[in-house]
Design a protein that fits this description.
Distance between the termini: 75 Å
InterPro entries: DUF2794
Strand order of the largest sheet: 1-2-3-4-5
Helix content: 10-25%
Radius of gyration: 18 Å
Strand content: 15-25%
Number of helices: 2
Protein name: DUF2794 domain-containing protein
Number of domains: 1
Length: 114
């Protein structure tokens, strides 16, 4: 015998918190690994909040994040749900495609060879 709950709870379709999925984390961690190998970044932190998910990048553990990669699903139909925010709070890039948004950080890897 099967039992179905037909009562609707307020907010049943709204997730408790926003988080990065496996594909998004793969793209972010790929960039993170390259930046660690280049000696630019050393630590990271992930926050899953009610309205956004944040991947923070640090040069050292005990300081403010150099960059924050944010996912805000409410902005999906407007400017795009992904953004890169600098240390001063300025939005460096915003868009719908995560790989495109992260290109602003990949420029740091390109250096002139002496």
């Amino acid at each position: 015998m099967s039992f179905q709950n037909t009562a609707s709870f307020p907010g049943a379709g709204i997730p408790e918190q926003v988080s990065f999925d496996r594909k998004e984390l793969s793209v972010i961690l790929s960039l993170y690994g390259r930046m660690v190998a280049a000696g630019e970044w050393r630590d990271y932190g992930i926050s899953s909040l009610r309205e956004c998910a944040v991947f923070s990048v640090f040069r050292r553990t005990a300081e403010h994040p150099l960059y924050r990669i944010e996912k805000r699903p409410k902005l999906r139909n407007r400017q795009g749900q992904y953004s890169v925010v600098g240390i001063d709070g300025q939005i460096l890039k915003r868009g719908h495609d995560l790989k495109t948004v992260l290109r602003v950080l990949e420029r740091k890897l390109i250096r002139a060879v002496d």
